[in-house]
Structure formats: structure tokens, C-alpha cells
């Protein structure tokens, strides 16, 4: 009997789970970050980032095809034993916790800046934790259904940006490769952080019903994410001048301010309120993975108590330190480095270790 059969997810849920985690608050500031490092060639960094993600996902799939019923924690126990595996399991768990923390903090800062400037930050976070607990405690299948539902309900939102094309100047994008390839490569740092989320494959894989389609699902999920980022980035580059765009902290929200209807002036606030559902498909699954990871470390089957503990801890920390935008940006840079280690370095090292082990022992791992 499969260990995780009761929480199996479908192919579509797998796709939208990965895509939902990848699309968060980063899309608001990504055009500015890319413009600062790569100019208007920054959208090309997204294509290279997509290619790197596909290679990393291929390595992950090759690892877990050998052990289709193991999560990352099960595999580490198999390879290194109960105690030695903790040296890798603990940093991975801390990464998921940091990811939840960072996304919740940035979402809270957006809400305070645009909707509730007088509301204490810990109250806003507390309001976030109510639906988070209700969903995260119910397991991965519920996460997948929620991410799929939110995608269908918000699929219309990108088309709103087409309303500004009449005031856009496509000449801003030319010429291509203004300063060569190096600026495009520099933009990879912002790109890799913005499309983070691929690392959950190492946890989700055993939950997937049709594991033969895992690679296809990852390619589709990453492609949807990259197309969304390229779409938003190119429109922002075309609407704002190359020098002007770097003056906006959130170019996408500044762009939405221009859109008005006769019956609705502040459409940007409506858009952000709805977009909060999309951001929730990032922090809520990350909360599940954080609690699931803690339960694996504690050798417990039920992750629900750890969801509650982590949420209470987050509220308490916000109450004490009152995070700011500068702190959030500083944490983002650190977590992005952390993400590179978990997403790219760890799978590569595991793949090399498995290949070496099989050759030395002339047999398969059991």
C-alpha cells in the first residue's frame, strides 16, 4: 500500500500547485528589479531562468523515479540513516518556514500600504492565518484543489493589462542585447527568486497519482508561470520608459492606477484585493510543507498541530519586531540564496551520490 495514497493529487492539481507557489508578490516588483540589472532586455532573463528550472526539475525526477513512494525526507533517511539525514532535513525545513514567513510579511505590507494603513500589522497577519489554518491542516489534496480553483477564478486578470497597450511604446524594447549578454545573465538573480517553488517537487512527487506525467506537469507549470512574468514585464517595459520604470517600487501596481472605468476609478485596489487570492496559493501550500516537514522531523503522522504552532509563532514575531519593507527586501535576498541551495545544489548532490553509491556497490539502493 502506498504510504501517501490517502492524499494523492491529480495531474492538474500538481500543475496548479507548482504554478500557484511560483506566482506570488514578486511579480509586483520584478519589472523594476530586471530593469535595474538588465535594462529592457530583462525579459530574456526569464527565458533563461525557465530553462534552468527545467534542467533542475529533470534531475529531481530522475532521483525520485527510483523511489516513487518517498518524499525527500524518506529518501534522506534511506540514504543516510535516521540521524545523519537530520543535517539536511533541518535546513530544508527551515527554508519552508522562512518562505512562509517572507510571503506572509510581504502580503501584509502590501495590504497595510494600500488598504489598512492604520491597522496593526499583527492583526493583518492574524486575519491571514485563519484561512491558512483551515486549508493547510487538511492536507495536500485540499491544497491542490484550492490552487486549481483560484487559477480558474483569476485567469481573466492578465487580460486587463491589454487596456494600456494604446499608451505603450514598443520602441522601448529595442534594440535587443543593448549591452550584450552579461546584463541578461545578471537578471537571473531576480528571476530565480521570483520563480521559486520548484523545490516542492521533492515533497509532492509521491503524492502524484500518475507519476509518469510528472516531468510534463512541471514543464507546463513552469511555462505558465514564465509566460505570465514575461507578459507583465514586457507590458511594463513598453508602458514606462527605461529610466522611468526604475523609479517605481511596484511597477505593476503603478500601471494599474492608469486603468479607469466610468463606474470604477480605483481599479488597482480591486485588482490587488483579488490578487491576494493568487498570493495565498503560495503561502498556504508553503505552510503545509513547513508543517509537514516539522512532522517528519518529529516522526509524527499528523501535521495539524505544527500548522497551529507555526502560525502562532509568526504572529508573535510580527507583534514584537514589526517588519518593514527594508527588512523584507533584506530577507528576500537571503532566502533567494537559500533557495538556490535547496532547488539546484541539493538535487545535484543527491543525484551524484546515488550514481556513485550504485557504481561502488554494483546494485540498486533498497
TrEMBL record:
Top-level lineage group: Bacteria
Main location (coarse class): membrane
Segments crossing the lipid bilayer: 12-30, 42-64, 84-110, 122-140, 149-171, 191-208, 215-240, 270-294, 306-325, 337-358
Pfam families for the chain: Spore_permease
Keyword Transferase among record annotations: no
Key words, A-Z: Germination, Membrane, Transmembrane, Transmembrane helix, Transport
Tagged with keyword Cell inner membrane: no
Subcellular location: Membrane
Bilayer topology: Multi-pass membrane protein
Family designation: Belongs to the amino acid-polyamine-organocation (APC) superfamily. Spore germination protein (SGP) (TC 2.A.3.9) family.
NCBIfam families the UniProt entry points to: 2A0309
Protein name: Endospore germination permease
Organism per entry: Cohnella silvisoli
Organism lineage: Bacteria, Bacillati, Bacillota, Bacilli, Bacillales
Amino acid at each position: 500500500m502506498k504510504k501517501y495514497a490517502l492524499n494523492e493529487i491529480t495531474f492538474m492539481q500538481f500543475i496548479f500547485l507548482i504554478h500557484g507557489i511560483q506566482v506570488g508578490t514578486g511579480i509586483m516588483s520584478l519589472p523594476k528589479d530586471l530593469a535595474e540589472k538588465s535594462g529592457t532586455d530583462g525579459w530574456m532573463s526569464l527565458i533563461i531562468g525557465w530553462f534552468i528550472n527545467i534542467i533542475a526539475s529533470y534531475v529531481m525526477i530522475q532521483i525520485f523515479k527510483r523511489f516513487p513512494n518517498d518524499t525527500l525526507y524518506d529518501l534522506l533517511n534511506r540514504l543516510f540513516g535516521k540521524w545523519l539525514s537530520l543535517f539536511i532535513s533541518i535546513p530544508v525545513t527551515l527554508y519552508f518556514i522562512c518562505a512562509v514567513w517572507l510571503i506572509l510579511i510581504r502580503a501584509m505590507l502590501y495590504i497595510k500600504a494600500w488598504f489598512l494603513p492604520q491597522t496593526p500589522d499583527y492583526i493583518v497577519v492574524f486575519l491571514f492565518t485563519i484561512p491558512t489554518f483551515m486549508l493547510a491542516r487538511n492536507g495536500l489534496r485540499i491544497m491542490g484543489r484550492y490552487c486549481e480553483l483560484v487559477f480558474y477564478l483569476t485567469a481573466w486578470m492578465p487580460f486587463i493589462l491589454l487596456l494600456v497597450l494604446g499608451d505603450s511604446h514598443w520602441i522601448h524594447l529595442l534594440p535587443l542585447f543593448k549591452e550584450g549578454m552579461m546584463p541578461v545573465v545578471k537578471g537571473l538573480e531576480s528571476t530565480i527568486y521570483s520563480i521559486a517553488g520548484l523545490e516542492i517537487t521533492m515533497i509532492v512527487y509521491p503524492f502524484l497519482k500518475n507519476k509518469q506525467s510528472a516531468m510534463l506537469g512541471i514543464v507546463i507549470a513552469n511555462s505558465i508561470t514564465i509566460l505570465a512574468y514575461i507578459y507583465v514585464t514586457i507590458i511594463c517595459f513598453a508602458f514606462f520608459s527605461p529610466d522611468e520604470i526604475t523609479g517605481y517600487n511596484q511597477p505593476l501596481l503603478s500601471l494599474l492606477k492608469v486603468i479607469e472605468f466610468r463606474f470604477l476609478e480605483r481599479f488597482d485596489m480591486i485588482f490587488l484585493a483579488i490578487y491576494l487570492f493568487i498570493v495565498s496559493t503560495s503561502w498556504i501550500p508553503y505552510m503545509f510543507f513547513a508543517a509537514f516537514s516539522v512532522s517528519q522531523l518529529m516522526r509524527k503522522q499528523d501535521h495539524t498541530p505544527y500548522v497551529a504552532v507555526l502560525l502562532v509563532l509568526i504572529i508573535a514575531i510580527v507583534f514584537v519586531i514589526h517588519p518593514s519593507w527594508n527588512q523584507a527586501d533584506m530577507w528576500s535576498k537571503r532566502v533567494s540564496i537559500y533557495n538556490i541551495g535547496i532547488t539546484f545544489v541539493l538535487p545535484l548532490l543527491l543525484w551524484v551520490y546515488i550514481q556513485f553509491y550504485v557504481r561502488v556497490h554494483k546494485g540498486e539502493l533498497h
